[in-house]
Design brief:
By secondary structure, the protein is mostly helical. The chain has 13 helices and two strands; from the N terminus they run ααααααββααααααα.
């Protein structure tokens, strides 16, 4: 269809609506016309010149833009809500874009904008051809990680964590911002409230990574990401004999609280000690399950 077709169609259609003076009514008219022709807003603006748009002028265009911004914020909120409750695979991979858009009942274009926003915030990262994943992009040493996975085992990974993560917690206590401490505490609470083991493990992973971010040391964070990549790839081979969610007295709950409080108190030594005790407790439980 030609530009003239769209322009003439809109001119005739909008003239019938000229009796409406309220700009919000005119916006609805404009959006309805756009939907009838299956065009995006930008496509319609491109083919309609001012003389073809007696009912659409600059103030209305600004209001239309504001409506789109509100839609983008709504979709972003939906996406964040999904990430907070979804049971994702161990690698944190999100569902395919088409499936995710259908699940959230949103358009794919606005979903891409929301994903781009979260990527800029460091909440997700994208790998071309593989998908979108929760967290920052890990260090691209896949070959080295695969080689390490072949040589290690879960108890070795725990030993590495015990040697490394207490120092990360100490740095977090010294350098965390108020917002980061609030997010660390939020992850702790979400882990305690998780309705399934899978969701608990996701929030537990986020808690430890957020502590890494709070260290304000990009090298420590990169090493932590590499360690976590190895940890996720190693086969743990343990079967949960407990109910579908962690019990109310799960040992990690109190241990997490001690770590978080030490970080909030800016007590580096206490944070390191609390993290070390927590990881040794996890190691002990792992040995008991063998």
């Amino acid at each position: 269809m030609s530009t003239n077709f769209f322009a003439e169609a809109f001119t005739g259609w909008s003239e019938k609506q000229a009796k409406f003076k309220n700009p919000h009514i005119k916006i609805l008219i404009f959006q309805r016309f756009r939907c009838l022709l299956h065009l995006s807003e930008q496509e319609l603006f491109c083919v309609l010149t001012p003389q073809h748009m007696p009912a659409i002028h600059q103030p209305i265009r600004i209001l239309v833009s504001q409506m789109d911004q509100n839609l983008e914020m709504d979709v972003l909120a939906k996406l964040k809500g999904f990430l907070a409750t979804a049971e994702l695979p161990d690698d944190g991979r999100l569902p395919p874009e088409r499936e995710l858009a259908q699940s959230l009942d949103v358009g794919r274009a606005v979903l891409r904008k929301a994903l781009a926003t979260l990527q800029a915030e460091g909440t997700v990262w994208r790998h071309v051809g593989k998908g979108t994943f929760v967290g920052d992009r890990p260090i691209d040493t896949v070959a080295d990680i695969n080689a390490m996975v072949q040589r290690t085992n879960p108890l070795e990974v725990m030993g590495a964590r015990i040697a490394f993560e207490p120092e990360v917690a100490r740095c977090a206590a010294l350098n965390a911002t108020g917002a980061q401490i609030a997010e660390i505490r939020n992850c702790m609470i979400k882990a305690q409230q998780a309705p399934t083991w899978r969701q608990y493990e996701q929030w537990d992973n986020r808690l430890h990574r957020t502590i890494g971010e709070a260290s304000q040391n990009s090298l420590l964070l990169g090493l932590l990401d590499t360690l976590n990549a190895v940890r996720r790839a190693v086969t743990w081979g343990r079967l949960r004999q407990t109910p579908v969610r962690p019990p109310a007295d799960h040992h990690s709950f109190a241990e997490h609280e001690q770590i978080v409080e030490a970080i909030a108190d800016r007590d580096g030594a206490a944070a390191a000690d609390a993290m070390r005790r927590h990881l040794r407790s996890v190691e002990s439980h792992m040995r008991d399950m063998r």
